[in-house]
Design a protein that fits this description.
nucleotide-binding; 2 domains; ATP-binding; globular; Cyclophilin; six-stranded antiparallel beta sheet; 4 helices; Cyclophilin-like_dom_sf; eight-stranded mixed beta sheet; 29% strand
């Protein structure tokens, strides 16, 4: 079973749950930027939550079905259509041989995830097929290239009956409130005014935003630490370079960094930030580590419960 890409845009890529246990080698994790939407797309088809999907950024993407099957779309609303008929994110749907599935421009959010039964097939590199262009790893051909016109995407799972997200589950992860931050080891190096400004001011998502990181524009944050030895940086780390404008590190970040850190976004907040367009105004809020862990466990329990109910 397969899809043929007729229009690839510039930023569509194959992404799964990412690479684990390789950062000591200098290899970043990669994987879906909005990992929550990717997991729901897989859930709709009964896949492993980390199965390979297509991450479609800002639309301009279309594929033609070469076989009858069932697909699922979650995440951003990129005005998806199947033979010109609208497809609402957050559901699976039947697709017939010859039909054209297209994604146009964003209506809400940035990244949509297209899943196929059993996950799209690609040879794993270091345990994952996640595309990391900078490191030339993963993807459909194993060399980190994004998807291109003429590529053929295959899967081997059996079609599933069409299904929608559970009641009450939001279709979009665009943030409706402040993004949660677990404070970091260098928090005491920031001035009191900077800490007040960090959590009581508006921040604007800059145009300089990609899968490596997102720069936030707002009040200038000052740290007493002028230099530090580079250390490992987690997903969602909020580095503050000398210009005082924070950079939130995402999936394709470097593995170490030498700027002081305000803290790190929680995993859910990372997924929410991944759906923010440049120009989006947001706020940050500090949370205790235990609170962030409870939030993560609740989310994982939701998948376990809904899977058991199916």
């Amino acid at each position: 079973m397969s899809l043929l890409i007729e229009r690839a845009g510039a930023m569509a890529s194959l992404q799964d749950g990412g690479r684990s246990g390789v950062r000591h080698l200098g290899v970043t994790q990669g994987g879906a930027a909005d990992w929550v939407s990717q997991a729901w797309a897989n859930w709709l088809l009964g896949n492993s939550l980390q199965a390979a999907t297509i991450e479609i950024t800002l639309g301009n993407f279309s594929v033609r079905a070469e076989t009858d099957s069932c697909l699922a779309v979650c995440g951003a609303d990129l005005k998806a259509t199947l033979d010109d008929q609208p497809i609402v994110p957050g559901r699976s749907f039947a697709i017939r041989k010859g039909q054209l599935l297209s994604f146009a421009q964003p209506r809400e959010g940035v990244r949509a995830y297209l899943a196929a039964p059993g996950g799209f097939l690609a040879t794993p590199v270091l345990g994952s097929c996640a595309t990391v262009r900078r490191e030339q790893l993963g993807g459909l051909h194993g060399d980190g290239r994004p998807l291109d016109t003429g590529d053929r995407l295959r899967w081997s799972g059996a079609p599933a009956a069409p299904r929608e997200l559970p009641p009450g589950q939001p279709r979009s992860l665009s943030p409706s409130g402040p993004l949660a931050v677990v404070l970091g080891a260098q928090i005491g190096d920031f001035s009191g005014q900077s800490l007040f400004d960090a959590f009581n001011s508006d921040w604007t998502v800059d145009q300089r935003a990609d899968r490596m990181g997102v720069r936030l524009l707002g009040p200038v944050l000052r740290s007493a630490r002028e230099s530090m030895i580079s250390e490992g940086v987690p997903l969602g780390a909020i580095q503050v370079p000398p210009d005082g404008q924070p950079i939130v590190l995402l999936n394709d970040r470097q593995t170490i960094g030498g700027y002081p850190r305000l803290g790190a976004l929680t995993p859910l907040a990372v997924a929410q930030l991944a759906q923010c367009m440049p120009g989006t105004v947001l706020r940050l809020k500090p949370v205790a580590l235990e609170s962030a862990q409870r939030e993560q466990r609740r989310l994982l329990a939701t998948w376990q419960r809904t899977t058991a109910e199916r």
